[in-house]
Amino acid sequence: MSGPWKKFELSEELLAGLEKKTARKEEIFSFRSDPLLAALISCLGLQFELGKPDQDRISFLLGVDLSKYEGNPWRTEIVTLGDQIGLRAWVPGLKEFRPMHEDFRFLFHPLSISQEGNLDQLLLFPNLVAEAYRAKGIELVVVRDWALSAFLSREKNLNYQKTNKQEIEENIALTQVRLMRNRQLALTGTHDIADHLLGGHAAGLELSHPLLDELAPVYNKAFTDTKATRRSLVLSYLIAVVLDDLAQPQWYASEAHLRVARRACRHLQASLGAEDIAQIFLPQAFHELVTAFRNRSSTSMELDALSAKFELELQGGVFKVNCSTIRQAGYEVSLQPSGFIRV
Amino acid sequence: MSTKTLTTALSLATFLASATSFAEALPVPRGSEIKARAGGCKIGPFEQSMKAGEYNQYCTQLTDAEKCLALVKQSFNPNDGVARPAYEQEKAAYCIDLLRAELLRQ
User: Fold this and answer.
1) Confidence band (pLDDT; 50, 70, 90) for A50?
2) What is the ipTM of this complex?
3) What does the pLDDT read at residue A341?
4) Which DSSP state fits A322?
5) Interatomic CA distance for residues A128 and A199, integer angstroms
6) Which of A8, A14, A40 is facing B104, going by the closest CB pair?
7) What is the pLDDT of residues A78-104, one digit of tens each?
8) Cα–chain-centroid distance for residue B81?
């Protein structure tokens, strides 16, 4: 396919320079403040993830089933069009993509549509996307350290879609709070598009602002006035996961998420000054709790019980009760708001 | 090397030299805060194409990188004080070359 765009040639030297320049940028920078640099980073991030089954979050939403291909079916190139830097992506043999969300119209340039009227390639110019989302009250940004650790640095290839220790140590919640407070969303990966941008709007992000107000004084005590404890960082990581969800249209103002975040915040405050844990670790209950608050059928009682289990495991305790077994024995079992079980 | 390529190369060299010096304080926003209007200034071999508002008198003191940033910002601010001129393919391409040169210089 040919068109008015031009291929932007990449080289190892250029990528090394990009890494260095990015490392000197501020922690969060918008597409408006440095459009060409931000666009290039954004395109590289999307290019890096497209077609990788453990990272690619948008192929499915475009009607591309990666499991039906041997290897990565995507072909991509960085292109320029006038003063824009963008990403061109296509799948050889695929005549038309089938977007499953109407907001893809904010993402793809009209040149993505062939003369026959088929969406047979994707042309995405991040600055134009940023402009479209600005009209919706959302500012698109690059989070320097996320870009560096995920795909820009030659040494690190951190998969942010999986739990990792680095995010805990870096206290990623602080970045999440800042982004949400300023109605900002990152655009450097497929997760950003699939989970945050499609359906995203400023009013949805603002629904979490009361929670941010509640977190602020506790975070000031936990992470500003004193050296962060390992326990605080783990609790904060749980809050970060909740916050990332709350910035997604499917979870805007989710009661379950807000409940878990508020309880984690209370526990964070209560544990200030307590003896620290020996090392950073995620208790098994962390994963159960995340699964639970993403399950719309979870009850408040279940969320509270799992939160209590998480807190106890974080403290080094053990919490193993098989309620079914107890019920089968003829006892009534109820979970108390405190997290304790009454038999 | 053609005349145009040579001119561009010289402009890039000028930019690279100026970029290393400390940005002089001016009574107009500079760096990442520069306004889109400054994109109307002369950039590299391309003469001033439109009014640059409050930047007019400072065009020569801005770096090409700053003016390119301003030019691209016009995509965000089509009515930022001046009517956007007709599509300027070569000027835009120059700015992208400038970014490439800057990255290679790192």
Assistant:
1) very high
2) 0.76
3) 60
4) -
5) 17
6) A14
7) 999 988 999 999 999 999 999 999 999
8) 17
Q: Count the domains in chain B.
A: 1
Question: How many contacts, defined by CB atoms under 8 Å, are there between A and B?
Answer: 66
Which chain B residues are within 8 Å of A126, Cβ to Cβ?
none
Residues 6+ positions from A18 with CB-CB distance below 8 Å? A37, A40, A41, A44, A152, B103, B106
CA–CA gap between residue A55 and residue A58 (Å, rounded): 9
> Which residues touch A216 (CB under 8 Å, ≥6 apart)?
A177
Considering only the beta carbons, identify the residue of B73, B88, B103 that sits closest to A35.
B73
Please report the pLDDT score of residue A331 as a whole number. 67
- Residue spans per domain, chain A: 6-156, 207-342
The owner of tokens 């969406």 is A119
Q: Mean pLDDT of all residues in chain A?
A: 91
Q: Model pTM?
A: 0.85
Domain that holds residue B96: 3-105
A131: nearest CB among B76, B88, B106: B76
Q: Render pLDDT for A260-271 as a digit per residue (tens, 0 to 9).
A: 999 999 999 999
Contacts of A93 (CB under 8 A, 6+ apart): none
For strands A28-30 and A139-143, give the pairing: antiparallel
Question: C-alpha dihedral over A261, A263, A264, A268, to 10 degrees?
Answer: 130
Task: Answer left, alpha or beta for residue A117, where phi above 0 means left and psi between -120 and 50 means alpha.
Answer: left
Is B72 in Cβ contact with A37 (below 8 Å)?
no
The tokens describing B28, both together, are 């107009």
Residues of B in contact with A133 (CB under 8 A): none
